[in-house]
Amino acid sequence: MAWDIWLIFFVLAVILPWRGRARLKTLLVMPHVGAMERIVLYASTIAFQWVIVAVVSWRAWAHGYTAVELGLTTRDGTRLIIGSIVGAATIATFHWFNLRRVGRIPPNSRGSIQAIAERILPQSTMELLPFLALAITAGLCEEFLYRGFAMAVLTRLGVVAWVAVLVSSILFGLAHLYQGRGGLVSTMFVGIVLGIGRVVYGSLVPVIFWHAAVDVIAGIAGPRYLLRSSLNTVESIS
């Protein structure tokens, strides 16, 4: 494997997890995170992801990776559309009900997820719009990086499909290590589902929709169930 491909994998496995944890640590030590800080966080993350995708696309093109290898195909469009819509609706529904379930747990019993939610999730319409832009960006960029590029490299190396899915899911989980061990495990599981979808459909199109659906629901239902409940608890205590 070429040195630049190794370097990209090093960035995915080490640099991105470190960066995510460092940025979250900065947010957690701040006494208050306002709307402007969150909007800047969303905007900078969007820019960073597109820069990473641009660099990886350049190196993939330089090494002769095809659109088919990267999952950038729309063959059998009807099947892709149906899979995208049905899968996104199903995943979004499960995620909504899971957030509602977590919202029923007392805020002081939710662990680190509560502190993360209070600092990262949008808390107004002005914040929600750039967050949704980030959700769509994550669906596009992260699927290209993990289910597109990473799986293409592993497949070209002769790795069997299930191992490619597993390795890409581990990298995907590590990128979300800032969410703690629970976030790492749950994200790996989501990555496996997305990886299987990538293999079954032979395209990134459905999994981009599925991934974006998860993040969109987090931005809409997360504040509803995780932030309002914590505010109500504070008010009742005071």
Structural features, described:
It is a single chain. This protein is mainly α. Helix content is 83%, strand content 0%. It contains nine helices and no strands. The chain has helices at 3-29, 35-62, 67-70, 77-103, 112-120, 125-156, 161-175, 180-201, 205-237. Helix 1 (3-29) runs parallel beside helix 7 (161-175) and helix 7 packs antiparallel against helix 8. It starts with a helix and ends with a helix. The model is unreliable at 231-238 (pLDDT under 50).
Quick overview of this protein structure:
The longest helix is centred in the last third of the chain and has 33 residues, at 205-237. Helix content is 83%, strand content 0%.
Spell the H/E element sequence.
Answer: HHHHHHHHH
Q: Provide the residue-averaged pLDDT.
A: 93
Indicate the proportion of strand residues.
under 5%
Question: Termini, distance in Å?
Answer: 60 Å
Query: What's the oligomerization state?
Result: single chain
**Which shape, going by the Cα principal axes?**
globular
Query: Would you tell me the structural class of the helices and strands?
Result: mainly alpha
Give the strand tally. Answer: 0
Indicate the radius of gyration in whole angstroms. Answer: 18 Å
- Which percent bin holds the helix content? over 70%
Q: Largest beta sheet, briefly?
A: none
As residue ranges, the low-confidence spans are: 231-238
**Helix segment count?**
9
Record keyword descriptors for this entry.
mainly alpha; 83% helix; disordered C terminus
